[in-house]
Amino acid sequence: MQGFFNIDKPAGLTSFDVVRRLKKTLPRGIKLGHLGTLDPMAEGVLPVAVGQATRLIPYLGEEHKTYRAKVSFGAVSDTQDAQGQIEYRMRPAFSREELIKVMTSFTGVIPQVPPMFSAVHHQGKRLYELARDGIEVPREARTITIYRLEMEELVWAGDYLQADLLVECSRGTYIRTLAHDIGQVMGTGAFLSALVRVASGVFQLEQAVSLSRLCEGSPSDFLLPLDFPLGHLAAVYLQDESQVLAVMNGQSLSWPNRLPEGDLRIYSMEGRLIALGRSQGEEGTTLKPMRVLKTA
C-alpha cells in the first residue's frame, strides 16, 4: 500500500494521534508520515504519506496552506490559543476599518517569532517542554509569507470581539502567533479560538475523508496515487523495458533531446511512477534517477 491519504483531522487529536490510529488500521509494517503538523485544537486537512510516498515528501515543494481562523480580541493566552490560560484584558473598541488596516501590515513577507508552546528545538529540547516547566527562552524570528489575509466576519461573542479570518500562508506559519501579534498591535490582546485548515498544497478539505470513515471502512478506497502532489514537476516517459530496468537499478540514461531542468517524474511505459530524477550534463541530455520507488 502506497500513496497519500487526505484526512480531515478532528479537533482534540494531535497529528501523531492520527498516524497512530492509522497504524492500527493498516497492515503491519507500513511506513507513515504526516505533512504539516496541526495543533490538537485545529481541524481540517492533514495529508498523510503511506509506504513509498514517505520518500517523496522532500519533493512536494513549497505548498501554500490555507486556513479559516477565529480570533478573539480582548484577552491573551499563554499558548496563544483557547487551550491555554486566558487572561482578560479589555473590551475592544476598535472599528472594522481599523482592524483591516492593521491586518494589511501583516501581509507579504514578515518576521514571526515561534511561540514557546511549539515543537521548535532549543538546545536539545522542544520549546513546549521548557514552557511546561515555566521556562521562557529567547527565540529568533523566522521569515514567513502571508499571501492573503482577509476578514470574513467581525461579531461579538460574549466579552470578545471575534474575527473570522481567511489566511493563505507559507509553510511554517503559526496562525495562533499571527492572531496574538495582531492583538498586540490592536492594543487589546487576542488569541486563536478556532482553526480549520482548508487546504495544504493540492490537498483540499472538500476532498478530505474523516478519520473515522477511513479507519472503519476500506482504507485503500481513499488512497491517492503517488504522483498526486507532484504535478508541479515535469514528467518523462520511458520507451522500453531496458530503460525501466536501468532506472530501477539507479543507472543514468542518455536522452535524445534536452530534458527540463529541476526535479522530474519518471514513468514506465504503462504510466506508472517509478522514480524521481534530474537532468545532468551540459546539454541536459542525461537522465539521472535520484529516488527510485519500489512500487511492485
Keywords:
single chain, 296 residues, Archaeosine Trna-guanine Transglycosylase, Chain: A, domain 4, 10-stranded mixed beta sheet, Pseudouridine synthase, alpha+beta
Task: Explain how this protein is built.
With 296 residues, the chain is an alpha+beta fold. The chain has three domains: 3-59 and 204-222, Pseudouridine synthase (2-Layer Sandwich); 65-200, Pseudouridine synthase (2-Layer Sandwich), CATH 3.30.2350.10; 234-292, PUA domain (Archaeosine Trna-guanine Transglycosylase, Chain: A, domain 4). The protein has six helices and 19 strands. The chain has helices at residues 15-25, 96-104, 127-132, 175-186, 211-216, 241-248; strands at residues 3-9, 32-34, 43-50, 65-73, 75-77, 86-88, 108-112, 121-122, 125-126, 142-157, 160-169, 190-200, 203-204, 209-210, 234-237, 253-254, 263-267, 273-280, 286-292. The strands form four sheets. Strands 1, 2, 3, 4, 7, 10, 11, 12, 13 and 14 form a ten-stranded mixed beta sheet that branches. A hairpin with an 8-residue loop joins strand 2 and strand 3 (43-50). The chain is elongated, with a radius of gyration of 23 Å. It starts with a strand and ends with a strand. The mean pLDDT is 88.
What is the CATH superfamily of the largest domain? Pseudouridine synthase
Shape: elongated
- Main sheet? 10 strands, mixed
Structural class: alpha+beta
Mean pLDDT across the residues is 88
Task: Give the name of the CATH architecture of the largest domain.
Answer: 2-Layer Sandwich
Low-confidence stretches: none
Q: Distance between termini?
A: 10 Å
